[in-house]
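Would you mind giving me a polypeptide sequence along with per-residue structure tokens?
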Amino acid sequence: SSTMSLSEAEVQSARGAWEKMYVDAEDNGTAVLVRMFTEHPDTKSYFTHFKGMDSAEEMKQSDQVRGHGKKVFSAINDMVQHLDNSEAFLGIVTPLGKKHATQLKIDPKNFRIICDIILQLMEEKFGGDCKASFEKVTNEICTHLNSIYKEEGW
């Protein structure tokens, strides 16, 4: 669906919550990926550069992991800025979903994994309220990504 299910108040509090994470986009983005690769080692198989890395320490230092962590956070940041404009939001989510579905062939369950880890990290760093106010956003993102995957025949 093209309509967003977030109220104006929810959009504002989600932005406030995200802002705290995005201040340290590279470090937090890296922490999210390192946790994903450590807790779900199969996700590493999509990244040729990261495959051989086993220690979290090694991953943390990797320019490729850091670069991708920052990229993930930038993409989410773009989405968060457009939560109140479904056309603009879909303009960001759609090509991203298509690319991951068709070119990169990433299993869509990985989006949920990454979103859950972001929520975990938010809770650890800034508490339950912060996490709660961002939860709807991650659901929104995953819902849209999943529907793009369906359209692409997954």
Q: What stands out?
A: The chain has seven helices and no strands. Residues 128-151 form the longest helix (24 residues). The CA atoms of residues 37 and 44 lie 6 Å apart. The chain has a mean pLDDT of 94.
